[in-house]
């Protein structure tokens, strides 16, 4: 029996990346309806899926009134994730939502409560963990190939993000709609990957971050450049660097007690979403790199969301949740991202987890304006993270 899914939000992620995953999973899941206020987006998807006009809705409210949807897959701007999940929970429809699940830790807590009370199944597209390169890296670490992991370093440069560069527009450049810049966007992938690579024994203790805005459109109030350093209880570290609009190379290196794993991308390819070139292992400190065979990512992009889609559809069909990223994992990554913004506001390392007393816990990134910001703080200098007019600010 196939599972009946509906897509909510039919923009870049749905059209370019999710659709190939769903087309390849037709044995397991059928898309029976879609919703998006944009008629062009509806027409494009309807044509590709062969959907009749009555299956294409303008609003998710109308879509969630249907009786034939087992779960919705949400790919809308970050600010809309909570209200969409809330209505789905009320209607008893399961939900997989794209990352970042929410704008603040308080929003994730509300979502966790809604899911528990309604009994729906819920998950998050932390899809990079399913990429063959990352999945094999995690498998090698689980099998003890490099001993206990001490250090993860990842960089991602010139990451593609529709709407952020000069001449473009859209919600991604607006903090109160996106919840932050590249860190809340692509950085979420590097945060959950870091947590998984460092393993369940990793307990983060401090976060130190720097941000800047250099290349993106002038009216954007989010960062396009970020470095984050996370230190764990036993001295383990994750060091992440991300940029929109600069740089040509990216890397993922994981150091353990007895060796190193490294993913290489073809020359000029800049980030973890690109088709990987080679997974190498260096056994011992002076070992020669050996290639680990991997069933590499290829075009078409079935693999991009494929693993995440299949695991969630199986879960909705009554299977085990293994492979589905949980709301708890999303909570941990969003909490770390907000701690990073708190570190930028205070211009020093901060202890984690983020305290419920921090304005960022409930307001998200715009909560930085409820803190004492030094006159030369980058948030002031670059005019970052402007709150909605009714949120107010005092500095
Ligand atoms: N997991 C990944 O690898 C990955 C990759 C790209 C994007 N994303 C995520 O996907 C989501 C969407 O990003 P995008 O790049 O597709 O954005 P986008 O702006 O291209 O598309 C968003 C779509 O949502 C629609 N929309 C807005 N409000 C809506 C509502 N209330 N109901 C229904 N539709 C609504 C818009 O009309 C638009 O078509 C974000 O959460 C983003 O972070 C994830």
Automatic annotation (TrEMBL):
Q: Name one Pfam family in it.
A: GFO_IDH_MocA
- Keywords linked to the UniProt accession: NAD, Oxidoreductase
The GFO/IDH/MocA-like oxidoreductase domain covers 136-261
Q: Which GO terms describe its molecular function?
A: nucleotide binding; oxidoreductase activity
Q: Which residues form the Gfo/Idh/MocA-like oxidoreductase N-terminal domain?
A: 4-125
Transmembrane residues, as ranges?
A: none
Claim: GTP-binding is one of the keywords in the record: no
Q: Which domain of life is it from?
A: Bacteria
Q: Please report the name of this protein according to its UniProt entry.
A: Oxidoreductase
Which species is this UniProt entry from?
Leucobacter massiliensis
């Amino acid at each position: 029996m196939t599972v009946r899914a509906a897509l909510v939000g039919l923009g870049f992620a749905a059209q370019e990346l999710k659709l190939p995953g769903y087309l390849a999973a037709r044995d397991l899941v059928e898309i029976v309806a879609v919703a998006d206020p944009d008629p062009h987006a509806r027409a494009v998807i309807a044509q590709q899926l062969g959907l009749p006009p009555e299956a294409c809705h303008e609003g998710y409210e109308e879509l969630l009134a249907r009786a034939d949807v087992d779960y919705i897959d949400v790919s809308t701007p970050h600010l809309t994730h909570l209200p969409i999940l809330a209505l789905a929970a009320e209607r008893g429809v399961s939900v997989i939502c794209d990352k970042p699940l929410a704008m603040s830790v308080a929003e994730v807590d509300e979502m966790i409560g809604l899911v528990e009370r309604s009994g729906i199944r819920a998950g998050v597209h932390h899809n990079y963990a399913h990429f063959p390169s990352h999945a094999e890296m995690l498998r090698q670490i689980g099998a003890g190939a490099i001993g206990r992991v001490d250090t993860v370093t990842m960089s991602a440069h010139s990451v593609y993000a529709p709407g952020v560069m000069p001449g473009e527009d859209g919600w991604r450049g607006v903090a109160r709609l996106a919840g932050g810049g590249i860190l809340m966007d692509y950085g979420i992938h590097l945060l959950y990957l870091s947590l998984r690579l460092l393993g369940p024994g990793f307990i983060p203790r401090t976060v130190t971050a720097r941000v800047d805005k250099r290349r993106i459109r002038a009216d954007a109030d989010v960062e396009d450049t970020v470095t984050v350093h996370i230190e764990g209880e036993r001295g383990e570290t994750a060091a992440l660097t991300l940029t929109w609009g600069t740089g040509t190379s990216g890397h993922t290196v994981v150091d353990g007690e007895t060796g190193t794993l490294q993913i290489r991308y073809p020359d000029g390819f800049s980030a973890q979403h690109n088709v990987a070139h080679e997974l190498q292992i260096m056994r011992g400190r002076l070992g020669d790199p050996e290639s680990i065979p991997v069933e590499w990512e290829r075009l078409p992009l079935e693999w991009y969301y494929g693993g995440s889609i299949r695991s969630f559809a199986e879960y909705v069909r009554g299977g085990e949740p293994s492979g589905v990223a949980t709301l708890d994992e999303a909570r941990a990554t969003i909490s770390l991202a907000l701690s990073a913004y708190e570190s930028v506001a205070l211009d020093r390392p901060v202890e984690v987890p983020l305290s419920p007393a921090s304005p960022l816990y409930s307001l998200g990134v715009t909560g930085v304006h409820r803190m004492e910001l030094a006159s030369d703080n980058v948030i002031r200098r670059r005019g970052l993270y402007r709150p909605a007019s009714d949120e107010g600010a005092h500095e």
